[in-house]
Amino acid sequence: MTNSAKTPTGKAKKGLVTIRPDAGCIKACFPRSPFPGEKGQVKRTTGIPEVKGWEGKASQLQSRLQIELDEGKLASPGGMFNLKRFNEILVEYKLRPDLKIVESAATSDGQLPPKPQLSLMEVWDMHCEYKRQGLRESNFEKMFQGNYRNFLESAIEATKSEDALKIRNWLVENRNHKTVKAVLSNLSKAYRLGMKNKLLTHDPFEGMAEEIVSEGAKGKTQGEIEADNDDDVLDKTKAYTWNEAQIILEYVQANCLHWYNYLKFKFLTGCRTSEGIAFMWCDIEWDKERVLIRRTYDRGTKKFYPLKNDRTYKGQATRKFPMPKDEELWNFLKSIPQGKTQGEIVFKSKRGKIIDFSTFGTAWRGREKSRGQKGIITNLIEQGKLTKYLKPYNTRHTFITHAVYDLGIDEKFVSNWCGHDLQVSNKHYQDVAIFASKINPHLPATTTQQSEIDLLREQMKQQQELINKLLQDRDK
């Protein structure tokens, strides 16, 4: 927490601005006395991301806000908080895009728009029913019935109104702009749907989402912020070396054994976190020497979903990962006690239940801020065995970069195993899948295996040349 001088009781002196984590974000908290017109203490989100080193930016902002408060620039004559001035300061510090509060709801001809015939939440529910069939259930429940609905209900409660401009302004001031943009865009679609069905006469949210450009960490736009995606799976800086992966596994085996099998499977296959959690005994085909990656687990709905519900898998219902007999992956899975049923998950929590994302995440990174609990990676960094922290998701990057750069396996085959997006011609996609099944993912692409890969490449080249010739002949 960033405060100025404190009293002997540990509390900030009266009249001082503080900046601290509050309700999941970094907020500026102001003393009550300068704002007698406000019902309670004034707290406003700052836009500072809660990442390592946030205190430095907070200290700079706190000093500036304290000066503004002492000079009376943050209070209006009526004792209300000067939100406009506060926002100008955030814009100056590049913590918020320059979004102006809309002052008037009048139309271009000076007339107020007609009052909607349905309540805002009735319109929203109508839109949700329309969207339900076209969305994956987990996304529908998490976003439309979860985050988006909560934003709207909070805005209505805070403004005591369903006025579109008041709703929009409150959301802009109090919620992250990426989600606000999505909410306003969907609200506009909801009203247009009502107009199409003759239930409404106008769209009060028309155009409100267009000006919002979301900003996040360090002033980057939302699209530039690092996320758990596959755009950078071949970036070595986002992966541990294979030697470092073994160091991690050795530490886990010695200190928190219940995570060992799950983590090793992630390193050996490059599967996504949710795919490893959803892996079942029926996904192991011993006779065909392969494992199947064909479902994910969603923590929001607590349900399993097939891969084909996600467009990033190119429509595949199943990914086939080679498991040569008596090689590392085969022997590893053989060492795990077989489940009682084929539909039983392979990797479980310490209590024998489905692995919880957050519990595993805490074990990985630790919880030093609240309990002083070091994690797997933080311990290894402290011991000098690792040099950087990467998220659990980056076990996927580690396998992929190891297979491509260390073992020399063609990225088209690795892409087929792991399901990351690679621009492979649809004409060749099935051929790649067939060839990929013949490659050992844990042996260097040298000698016999290298010659097989070279042969497969030559076959693919010849097929492409034949296709090109046929296309040329057709066009003549």
Quick structural summary:
This protein is mostly helical and 476 residues long. Helices cover 44% and strands 7% of the residues.
Describe the fold and architecture:
This protein is mainly α. It folds into 3 domains: about 80 residues, no CATH class; about 100 residues, DNA polymerase, domain 1; about 210 residues, Intergrase catalytic core (hpI Integrase, Chain A, Orthogonal Bundle), CATH 1.10.443.10. The protein has 17 helices and 10 strands. The strands form 4 sheets. The protein has a 3-stranded antiparallel β-sheet. Strands 4-5-8 form a 3-stranded antiparallel β-sheet. Strand 1 and strand 2 form a beta hairpin. The N and C termini lie far apart (about 75 Å).
